[in-house]
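Field reference: sequence -> structure
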Amino acid sequence: MNYALTDEQAMIQKMMREFADEEVAPSAEQRDKEKKFPVEIFQKLGKLGIMGLPFPEEYGGGGADTISFAIAVEELSRACGSAGITYSAHVSLGGAPLYLFGTEEQKQKYLVPICTGESMGAFGLTEPNAGSDAGGTQTTAAKQGNQWVICGSKCYITNASYAKHLALTAITGKNDGKKEISAIIVPTDAEGFKVIDNYEKLGLHSSNTTELILDQVKVPEENLLGQRGDGFKQFLITLDGGRIGIGAMAVGIAQAAYDKALAYSKERKQFGTALSKFQAIQFKLADMAMKIELARNMVYKAAWLKDQGKRFSKEAAMAKLYASEACMQICSEAVQIHGGYGYMRDYHVERYFRDAKLTEIGEGTSEIQRMVISREIGC
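Structure field:
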C-alpha cells in the first residue's frame, strides 16, 4: 500500500497550490463581498490545461487521474470555496456525463469546449420538487419529428450562466407506468431557454448558482445523451464521481480553516500566554488535524478506486459524508478559537464556515449519503 503521490500528482499539487495562493486567495474575500464570478481565474486555468484535467488529451484534456482532480479541487477550495465548487462541478457534472455517455461526435462538439475552458461545464438535475428525490423530475421532453421539445424548470444549477451547453434530465415517456427519464444536451442560447441568476445564498457567493426555465425548447434528436430511458442511471453514476469532488472541496475548506486557527492560536495571547499553550485549544487543533487527515485519505481512496475501475459508490459516499461533516465541525471550531474576531469578515473563518455548509447538501445531502451507504452494506 503506497500513500505517496506519483511524480505527476505531486507536480499538479505544487502547481495548483502556487496558483491558488498567488491567483485565487488574494481576492477571494473581495469576490465574496461583491458576489463576483472569477472569470479571469478560470481563463487562466484553461491556459494551464487544468479545465479538462481528468479527460483524455484527444478531447483537449490533461489525461490525468481522479486523484489529480481531487487535488486540484482541494487546493482551489483551500483558497476559495466558490472557485473549488465551480471547478468541481465543471468537471464532474459538466464534463463527466459527456465523456461517459456521449457519442464520439458529441464529445468532439460538447466535451472539447469544456476541456479547453471555452465553456463552463454544468448539469441540469435538481428541480423545485425534485431535490434528494431526483426521481421526482417533472421537466418533460416530447418527441416531435426529429426534435425534442423540452418544457420545465431546474433550480440550484451551478455554472449555467457561463455554460454554452449542458446536459439535463427530462421525462421522455413512461414504461410500465413509471417515468422514463433521459438526459439531453441543450445549448443555453436555444430559443425558449432562460438562465436566471438571482439567488441570495448563505455562502459561496462568487460561484454561479442559477435557475433554468425551458419553454418549448427545441433540440435535435441526436442531442439525446446515451440511451433513451437511461437518464436516471446516468445521473447516479455522475453523482458518484461528483461526491469525490465535493469531498475534496470539504477537505480544502477545512484545511484553510485549520491553518487560520493554528496561526491565530500562536499569535493571540490571553492571560499573558499564547492560546496554543492552553490544553483546551491544543485538543481542538489536534482533533481538527486528525479529521482533515482522515477525510483526505478517504477522498483519495475513493478516487483511487475509481481510477482502478473498481466499485467506489460506497467509498465516495463515505468520503463525501465524513469530509463534509468534519469540515463543518472544523470551521465551527476555527470560529470559536478566534472568539469575537472569528465572527468578523476580516479573519476569513466566517467565510469558510458559511461556504462549508453546502458540502453537506450538494451532490446528495448527508441523509442521502447514509442511505447510499446503507444500501451498499446490504441493509
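Note: The chain has eleven helices and ten strands.
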